[in-house]
Design goal:
mainly alpha; ABC transporter involved in vitamin B12 uptake, BtuC; 1% strand
Length: 321
């Protein structure tokens, strides 16, 4: 009985370390977020206005939903550089189908996103292609497809599902979807066998396979989920802008990876959390708002994002050791 109790406690302790990032990590992210909020509120007294805070969530709903899939992929030891191009091609499908009933639009867009995820997952999980190379190839091919289909022009007046950018009370539909999906995916990552398998594969694929986990299927499923979430993000983006553009969501993968890393997820895999990614998203959302308040241009913002990514990776590697 004593041995069983010790084994149970040891397993519980390992699981707790395995699925959560350290309290100090979370505290550091929360402190950074709090400082950003204080600085932003000083620079602009209207920053803490409820409408402004809800608008920040709405504006970052597309990034947040893509971040969910990216986080799962990263925890599993992979990377998905094709998310921006997948969102763009899914948006074009929505634009071309705008005169059809919404259920048909949804199915067509979702099928497109899932198909992109299947291709990535198959190349990586079954053909043993490096995730960076496989998803970079998909990124280039899908963006080229977008430009080929449209000739570089955009599809305007896509308003058949504008309700996706509407409000329920004072809260926008994208913001509600974002919060609900983060709660659902946090539970998926922590409380399901699939989630535990993703962490196990990221922590050591060989060991995971020897323990009986079907590593190829699990890895492929993370990319399929990522593609499906890109489809939903595309619908939200098109509903917000009322246009479908071939160059939409350019460099979205950079923002998603950066938010995941700032949220305590490791590019080496096997470590992190969905809740941490959400905090990372909030940091980036408030930071972007602060950049706009102080008048930083797009080029300067990209420089700061690059610096933040380097710092996050260095911290992640140090904690892994």
């Amino acid at each position: 009985m004593d041995n069983n109790a010790c084994l149970h406690e040891g397993a519980a302790a390992k699981a707790k370390r395995f699925f959560s990032f350290k309290t100090n990590d979370k505290l550091g992210i929360l402190i950074a977020l709090l400082l950003l909020v204080i600085v932003s509120s000083i620079l602009s007294p209207s920053f803490l206005n409820a409408n402004n805070l809800l608008n920040i969530l709405r504006q970052n709903a597309m990034l947040g939903i893509v971040l969910l899939g990216m986080t799962l992929v990263i925890i599993g030891g992979g990377i998905d550089l094709s998310v921006g191009s997948t969102v763009a091609v899914c948006g074009l499908v929505a634009g071309y189908c705008m005169h059809l009933p919404f259920p048909i639009i949804f199915v067509a867009v979702l099928a497109t996103g899932l198909a992109a995820g299947v291709v990535n997952g198959y190349l990586i999980a079954y053909q043993k292609m490096e995730p960076f190379i496989a998803t970079l190839s998909s990124q280039i091919a899908l963006r080229g497809l977008c430009l080929f289909l449209t000739g570089g022009t955009y599809i305007s007046s896509v308003k058949s599902f504008s309700w996706l950018n509407g409000k329920i009370g004072i809260v926008s539909v994208p913001a509600i979807l974002l919060v609900v999906m983060f709660v659902v995916f946090d539970a998926l990552a922590v409380k399901t066998v699939f989630g535990r398998n993703v962490f196990a594969i990221g922590g050591g694929e060989v060991a995971a396979k020897l323990s009986g986990i079907k590593t190829r299927k699990v890895k492929m499923m993370t990319y399929v989920i990522s593609g499906g979430l890109c489809a939903l993000a595309a619908l939200i983006n098109v509903a917000r802008l009322s246009t479908a553009e071939p160059l939409a969501a350019s460099a979205l993968e950079v923002d998603a990876i950066a938010a995941a890393l700032v949220g305590g997820n490791s590019l080496l895999g096997g470590r992190g959390s969905i809740s941490g990614a959400f905090l990372g998203l909030l940091v980036f959302a408030v930071l972007a708002n602060l950049f706009n308040l102080i008048g930083l241009g797009a080029s300067e913002q990209q420089i700061f994002k690059g610096i933040i990514i380097v710092i996050a990776v260095l911290i992640s590697q140090r904690q892994k050791r």
